[in-house]
Amino acid sequence: MMESRLTAARTGAALVIAGVVLGLTACGSSSSTKSVTKEAGAAGACTPAVMVVRHAEDKANPDGGADILSEVGIAHAKLYPKLFEKYLAKTHGIGGAEVTVCPIGKIIAIDPKANAVNPSPGTNPFNTIDPLAKSLGLTIKTQDAGGVSYSTVYNWNTARRKTLLDGSSTSTVIAWDKQGLNPSADDLNKKINNQTLRSYGYTPLLQTLPTDKTAIIGSSGYFTPQRTDLYVFALQDPTTGKFGFAKRYKQQFSDDNGVTWYYRENLSSTDKPNDVKT
Question: Does a structural domain hold residue 4?
Fold first, then answer.
């Protein structure tokens, strides 16, 4: 895990996502919080975490309705198994200690099927994280324990935050959309089921998970989650379900077998699927 931020060495280069998250660009964590590790079988002592991604690149659906993953988005999604494999294979500084993050035991995505909240939801978050789920033999959870569908406006209250790790020795991955992560003022005027997002009164995920609500989005709140971001939350408070450790990482790319690393805020829509290689 590199802690430096590298920028594009050749902006016109083909993209290659190395299966590793590199480069810390913003963080919010409490250095005084001590890391709590748990036993995870053969994995040994580890720290459970919640890892969040925004859905991959998309395009208009030729059949109408919600956008669907583009060719680049599909290629991006297929690289997530290697990305998470590499991330979990390394140790990371959490709570003032170098720790191993627990293996993934749960994957959550916005429900792609019609439900009470959204009769015509998009499939992008689900399809983005599906390759990872398949590689791990896990079923993506699209509803909570109470049968409520995960949606853009799902309100992560205290009880719901506590279920993210369930006191287990495994980590959880979440695939979400921009409006559910941190909507702009304009986003809040968009509608789901003929209601504006604003009317649902939900707290966006990137604001509700960290103990310090500004840890990821900053004090101004004007933060746009990028498709190449990875958010990691750890050290969950058993009372509030919030996380004392929160970091934002960039997925970085290379087109020369790792000699030069760089990233783009979004993969260009002009990139061909064959340009996104492992």
Answer: no
Task: With respect to residue 10, please indicate whether it lies within any of the assigned structural domains.
Answer: no
Residue 260 lies in a domain: yes
Q: Confirm if 160 and 150 have CB atoms less than 8 A apart.
A: no
Tokens found for residue 59? 């395009």
Per residue of the chain (278 residues), what is the pLDDT tens digit? 332 222 222 222 233 333 333 333 333 333 333 334 454 443 458 999 999 999 999 999 999 899 999 988 998 899 899 899 999 999 999 999 999 999 999 999 999 999 999 999 999 999 999 999 999 999 999 999 999 999 999 999 999 999 999 988 999 999 999 999 999 999 999 999 999 999 999 999 999 999 999 999 999 999 999 999 999 999 999 999 999 999 999 887 766 777 777 666 665 655 544 444 33
Residue 2 within a domain: no
Complete DSSP assignment for 219-235: TT------TTEEEEEEE
What's the CATH number where 34 sits? 3.40.50
Domain tally, the chain: 1
